Amino acid sequence: MTKMKAVGLYQYLPITDPESLQDVEIPKPEPKGSDLLVRVMAISVNPVDTKIRSPKERVEKEPRILGWDVAGIVEETGPDTSLFKKGDQVFYAGSVARPGANSEYHLVDERIVGRKPEILSYSEAAALPLTSLTAWEALFDRLGIPETGNVNTNLLVIGAAGGVGSIAIQLAKRAGLTVIGTASRTESTQWIKDRGADHVINHYEEFVPQLKQIGLEGVDYILCLNRTDMHWDNMAKAINPQGKICSIYETNEKLNLFPLFNKSVTFVWELMFTRSLFGTPDMIKQHEILNKISDMVDSRILQTTVNEVLSPINAENVRKAHAMLEEGKTIGKIVIEGF
Ligand SMILES: NC(=O)c1ccc[n+]([C@@H]2O[C@H](COP(=O)([O-])OP(=O)(O)OC[C@H]3O[C@@H](n4cnc5c(N)ncnc54)[C@H](OP(=O)(O)O)[C@@H]3O)[C@@H](O)[C@H]2O)c1
């Protein structure tokens, strides 16, 4: 059996423990059905990795492989594939129900894979898939915002300097919205402005007085990318009558929908893994979204959101990236390239 390099875990440990993520060798998989076998050139690290790795009692018999953001090259195709061929350059997030991509080769269903933007390097491309899918689905599928032509309509993006926010701002600006981003530091404020946000307010202060200062009574849409529980009351106050709120940040706290009643406000969740987790009939929409993202990058409508590149892909660098993410202050994306 051919083996390949990977970064995996047996135990769920604090990231300061060198055993929390280890260099391992695992069997190289073979593509079946609608799977592609992809040679992984670069990966990016997301909070989903650190959340899954977070300390708990469980012990794995086989190493568990994390990593759901990839740019790579199709090495082999399964018998039922039709969208890609050997040698194609691709990017994708994959499915959280399957092993992640922190390995030399990775299996993924072709229906959730897109064509890598031609003008980007592998590391620049790896920054995009998971966050672009999340931002696209949140804005256009869940909030139902038209993809273009929005005038006199505004959007508040909470936690806008992170991975998802950095691409959400660009997609929303391209859709014609006025975008207000939130940040709490000078560096993150500047990053949001550079991505195209019209205004920046602070997520640790009341939203309504800050919106008034920029001439707004409220906002039509809110995209909450952080601490839904903490921002709930502020969002309920800031949303306009008949407005819509989407959150991507899960919480076990009970959320009180009543403050949204008088204003007939819609609240909706977005989970980027829903389509792949449930194999929904429209799963191929992620292939289409990624191809649209790719076209927009190649047309220079969207920019990569990479801010830091580590190399090579090994346990030491993946641990380093997890530690950075766990601080909660990431600006843009952290990418790791090459085995
Ligand atoms: N549902 C889904 O499909 C989905 C998909 C992707 C991500 N997520 C989740 O969404 C969250 C954001 O992901 P990401 O990749 O954008 O994260 P990230 O890159 O780690 O976000 C970092 C940013 O969060 C901001 N931030 C920190 N604390 C905040 C707070 N209390 N309120 C508002 N902003 C705060 C920071 O801004 P300042 O430094 O300026 O404070 C920093 O720039 C994560 O929890 C992730 O698991 C969900």
How are the secondary structure elements laid out?
Layout: E1 3-12, E2 22-27, E3 35-45, H1 47-53, E4 56-65, E5 70-77, E6 89-92, E7 105-109, E8 113-115, H2 122-126, H3 129-142, E9 154-158, H4 163-174, E10 178-182, H5 186-194, E11 199-201, H6 207-213, E12 219-224, H7 228-238, E13 239-247, E14 266-269, H8 274-278, H9 285-298, E15 306-310, H10 315-326, E16 333-337
Parallel strand pairs: 9-10, 9-12, 10-11, 12-13, 13-14, 15-16
Antiparallel strand pairs: 1-2, 1-4, 3-5, 3-7, 3-16, 5-6, 6-8
Helix pairs in contact: 3-4, 3-9
Bound molecules: NADP nicotinamide-adenine-dinucleotide phosphate (NAP).
Residues 46-48, 51, 131, 134, 158-159, 161-165, 182-185, 188, 203, 225-227, 230, 248-249, 270-272, 325, 328-331 line the site of NADP nicotinamide-adenine-dinucleotide phosphate.
